[in-house]
Amino acid sequence: MKQYDNIIIGFGKGGKTLAGALAAGGQSAAIIEQSDKMYGGTCINVACIPTKSLEHSARLSAAQGGTFEEKAERYAIAVEKKRKLTSMLREKNYQKAVGAGVDVILGNASFQDKEHITVTKPDGTTELIQGGRFFINTGARPFIPPLPGIEGNPYVYTSETLMELDTLPGHLVIIGAGYIGLEFASYYANFGTKVTVIQDKDRFMPREDAEMADAVLKSFEERGILLLPNASVTSVDAGKDHAVVSVKTKEGTQKLTAQAVLVATGRRPNIQGLLPEKAGVELTPRGAVLTDNKLRTTNPNIWAMGDVAGGLQFTYISLDDSRIVKSQLLGNGERTTENRGEIPYSVFLDPPFSRVGLTEQEAREQGREILVAKLPAAAVPKAQILNKQTGLLKVIVDAQSGLILGAHLFCAESHEMIQLFKLAIDANLPYTVLRDSIYTHPTMSEAINDLLAGI
Ligand SMILES: Cc1cc2nc3c(=O)[nH]c(=O)nc-3n(C[C@H](O)[C@H](O)[C@H](O)COP(=O)(O)OP(=O)(O)OC[C@H]3O[C@@H](n4cnc5c(N)ncnc54)[C@H](O)[C@@H]3O)c2cc1C
Ligand SMILES: NC(=O)c1ccc[n+]([C@@H]2O[C@H](COP(=O)([O-])OP(=O)(O)OC[C@H]3O[C@@H](n4cnc5c(N)ncnc54)[C@H](O)[C@@H]3O)[C@@H](O)[C@H]2O)c1
User: Fold this and answer.
1) Using a 6 Å cutoff on CB, does residue 25 contact ligand 1?
2) Which ligand 2 atom is at minimum distance from the Cα of 182?
C-alpha cells in the first residue's frame, strides 16, 4: 500500500500550492485528482482563466463590429484560442507539481477511515492509500435548481459547458444575476449575442453599494442587456433548434426563445463521493466542510481549503488558505482566516467592477461618521483614451480617523487599482496618503488624486 506524509484531495489552487511547499520541505506528498482534464483545478481549466480569455476576445470583437456572421466567426476563433490556453496551462501545472516531487494520482478519492482513502481510477479499479495528513481541496459544483424541463435539455448550459459552445447564440438567456451571470452577460453582449438576464431578486447587485449597482445597471441598459428583476422561471422547454424559457414577472408570464440558456444560480461545496464522515470530518448546515479559523476540520489531521471550506469562492482565497495551512505546518502558525485582511474582488464586466471594504450603507449602519468621495470615470483622461467613459469611482472614509473604509470602482482597470485600496486599508493608511501619492500618467490610478481630493 502506498503511504504519504501528505495527501491532497483535488488539484485546486490551495492544494497544488501547499503540495509543492511540503515536497520542497522534504515531506512526501500526493495530489489525487479525479479528471486529467482538471489538472491545475477549476480556475485554469473551466473558470477564471478561460472566462477572462473570452472576455478579452469579446471586447476586441466588439471594437471591430461587423455583421453577426463575422462576429460568430471571431467567437469560434476565441473559443479555440481559449482551449489552447487552458490545455497549455493544464500541462504546465501538471509538470510543475511532478517537477516539485509531488505524485499526481488520477482517480476519485473517498475516505475509508481516518488514515486511508480509496482512489477509484478511470478504469474502475481501486487503490487504498494511507496518509499522515489530508487536505480537502475539492472545490465547488454548480447548483442547478430543479426547474421543469431543465434536466437533459440540450440548450441548457452551465458556465463550464457554455464555454465549449463553438456557435455564437443569437439569444442567450441567463438564469441568475450573480458574478457568473453578469460576467457572461457582459462578454456575450460584446461578442454580439442578444442577452436577457433573469434575476430572482428585486434589487440588482443587492450586496453592493446602491449607487454603484445603479451605475452598473445603467451601463447594462445602455449596452442593450435586458434584465428581468423579480422574475422566476417556471419551465425551460426544448424546441426544434431553441429553448423556450417561461418567465413569471410582475407583468405576467412571458416566453423567451433562446439558442442557449445559462444556469448561473450559484456553486455549492463539492463533497460528492468523498465520504468525509468516515474520517470524522463534519459538515456545516450548508454542506461545506466545517473548519476553524486555521482551516482545521473536526479531525486534527485533516484540513480543508478553497471553495469546499464554504468561504468566499475566489482562487486567491484558496491560495491564501494554503498560506494559513502552510503557516501551521512549516511556519509560526500565526496566519488565520481572521488576520488575512480585507478581501477585494473584481467582477470582469466591461468596464470591470471592483470592490474592497464597506459600502456607504454598511458604514452608516455601523453608526460611523463618514466622508464620501466620488468621481465619474469620464473625468479621467485615461478613460477617454481607452474610450471607456462609463463608470463611477466611490470611496468611503471614516471622518474621524481618515482611514479608508471601502472603495468601489466601476471603471477601466479597476481590477488593478483595487489592490492599492486593499493595501491602504490593511496598512491603516489615512486616505491622504493615497490622495497625495505620485502616480504615473496617463493611468486610471492617477484618478485617485482627484477622487480623494474631492473629500
Ligand atoms: C465561471 C467561473 C469564473 C470564475 N472567475 C473567477 C475569477 O475571475 N477570479 C477568481 O478569483 N475566482 C473566480 N472563480 C472562482 C474560482 O474558480 C474558484 O473559487 C476556485 O477555482 C476554487 O479553487 P479550489 O482550490 O477551491 O478548488 P478547485 O480548483 O475547484 O479544484 C478542485 C478539484 O478537485 C477535484 N475533485 C473534486 N472531488 C474530488 C475527489 N473526490 N477526488 C479527486 N478529485 C476531486 C476537481 O476535479 C477539481 O479539479 C470563477 C468560477 C467560475 C465557475
Ligand atoms: N470575478 C470573479 O471573481 C468571479 C467570477 C465568476 C464567479 N465567481 C465565483 O463563483 C461563484 C458562483 O457564481 P454564481 O454567479 O453562480 O453565484 P452567485 O451566488 O454569485 O449568484 C447566484 C445568483 O443566482 C440567483 N438565483 C438562484 N436561484 C435562482 C433562480 N431559480 N432563478 C433566478 N435566479 C436565481 C441568486 O439570487 C444569485 O443572485 C461566486 O460566488 C464567485 O465567488 C467569481
Assistant:
1) no
2) 15
136 three-class SS: strand
Q: Alpha-carbon distance 145 to 175, whole Å?
A: 10
Say how far residue 152 (Cα) sits from the centre of its chain. 26
**Domain match, 400 and 297 both:** no
Of the residues 238, 265, 292, which one is the last residue of a structural domain? 265
Per the structure, the count of domains in the chain is: 3
- Residue 390 backbone phi and psi in degrees, to 5: -65, 140
pLDDT tens by residue, 7-34? 999 999 999 999 999 999 999 999 999 9
Who contacts 274 (Cβ-Cβ below 8 Å, separation ≥6)? 9, 109, 110, 111, 136, 138
- Grouping H, G, I as helix, E, B as strand and the rest as coil, residue 306 is helix
Residue matched to cell numbers 422561471:
233
Q: Are residues 114 and 20 in the same domain?
A: yes
Q: Find out whether 201 and 287 touch, Cβ atoms under 8 Å.
A: no
Please give the model's pTM, rounded to 2 decimal places. Answer: 0.98
Cβ contact 137:56 at 8 Å: no
Q: 197 CB under 6 A from ligand 2?
A: no
Q: What is the pLDDT of residues 332-359, one digit of tens each?
A: 999 999 999 999 999 999 999 999 999 9
pLDDT at site 103: 98
Beta bridge partners of 173: 196, 261
101 appears as a binding residue in the annotation: no
